[in-house]
Design a protein that fits this description.
Length: about 350
């Protein structure tokens, strides 16, 4: 660490304290994009979380240059801006960033906005510790309150309707595995064929924090997996329908088919588009483009809620969810719409008289 010499007096003739300037621990990256890569590889981010982190940090890349991030169809294929990570120290950036963040919060749900802000702050803190930047332009940007959504758990008839959709084998298998295992979507998408133990209906995943853990599925997934794998012995379990573009990481390419691993973003898009009419049963099919469907996380939420409704013990719910705290289960232990409907019907005096 180097110390700048004192060169001037402060108010009242008091000497100003010397200013410490950190010496970078390593050579600064050549661009913000490179800084993101260095962070993802150097900060110990779990493989299952890296995709979400990269998407969030790419989104904020536009905002850190003073430009709104593209949304909707414009986001796909949009090239992120190229700039030096040192530009984050621009003294004018905090005010501009606060306005952009507020505008984005008006367009996106609170959970997404808060997750992106949290990820960006973690990355900025890591870059500060490397000595690449000094300030944090997100200071002053507050997390948005996220009102609790009491309808996240899908009803049993909604789950049944989901299985009846005419979708590809890949989607059927992916969605079944998510619901039956109650696993996170990013964990399942990181599965490789060699991670599967079909005879035991289980698979080995890399969870949050980098821990290696098991997920378990049921007969629905077990019946679909052999058709999906189609004799492959290695490589990503869930693949795109086309060959991987040049530059795709080797670990995300199937050696036998040359196809790439299905991304979280694309998997989410397909699920959201496929479930728009299920999520809006009174809407007209011609209005489907203006509707919002379900998110992949609702399959995990629904599975754990249905377990709780059926009397699954707290220790087993902890094991299924792979949460470390009982408090984390509160969001799933709330009975869903079907359970409440049964409770009310069973206590209906008229129904008891008819019986």
């Amino acid at each position: 660490m180097t110390i700048e010499p004192v060169t001037e007096l402060g108010a009242g003739g008091v000497l100003r304290l010397p200013r410490a300037r950190g010496v970078p621990l390593s050579a600064p990256p050549t661009s913000y994009t490179a800084a993101v890569v260095r962070y993802l590889t150097g900060a110990g981010i779990a493989k299952s979380s890296a995709r979400i982190y990269r998407i969030s940090l790419t989104t904020w890349g536009w905002m850190l240059t003073g430009e709104p991030a593209p949304t909707g169809p414009a986001r796909r294929g949009a090239k992120p801006p190229v700039f030096l990570v040192a530009a984050i120290d621009d003294p004018a950036l905090p005010e501009v960033l606060a306005e952009l963040a507020a505008a984005r919060a008006d367009e996106m749900d609170a959970d997404t906005v808060n997750r992106e802000l949290s990820i960006t702050r973690k990355a900025i803190g890591w870059w500060q510790r490397q000595g690449w930047i000094e300030g944090d332009p997100t200071i002053g940007i507050e997390r948005r309150p996220a009102p609790p959504d009491r309808t996240k758990a899908l009803a049993e008839n909604q789950i049944a309707a989901l299985w009846r959709l005419d979708v590809s084998l890949r989607e059927k298998t992916f969605w079944k595995m998510l619901y039956e295992s109650a696993a996170r979507a990013d964990e399942v998408l990181c599965l490789n064929v060699e991670d599967l133990y079909p005879q035991d209906k289980r698979g080995k995943i890399t969870a949050k924090g980098g821990a290696t853990e098991w997920i378990h599925w049921q007969s629905g997934t077990a019946q679909l997996l052999p058709r999906l794998i189609a004799g492959r012995t290695r490589g990503p379990l869930f693949l795109t329908g086309r060959k991987a573009p040049a530059g795709t990481a080797t670990l995300d390419v199937c050696e036998e088919t040359s196809r790439a691993r299905l991304s979280y973003r694309r998997g989410e898009e397909i699920f959201e588009e496929s479930t728009r009419l299920l999520a809006n049963p009174l809407a007209r099919p011609e209005d489907v483009e203006d509707l919002a469907g379900w998110t992949l996380h609702r399959l995990r939420h629904s599975a754990l809620t249905h377990d709780a409704e059926n009397g699954t013990s707290t220790p087993m719910l902890l094991a299924r969810s792979r949460h470390a705290s009982v408090r984390s289960l509160e969001r799933y232990a709330r009975p869903g719409v079907d359970a409440v409907a049964r409770h009310v019907a069973e206590r209906d005096p008229a129904a008891r008289r008819r019986g």
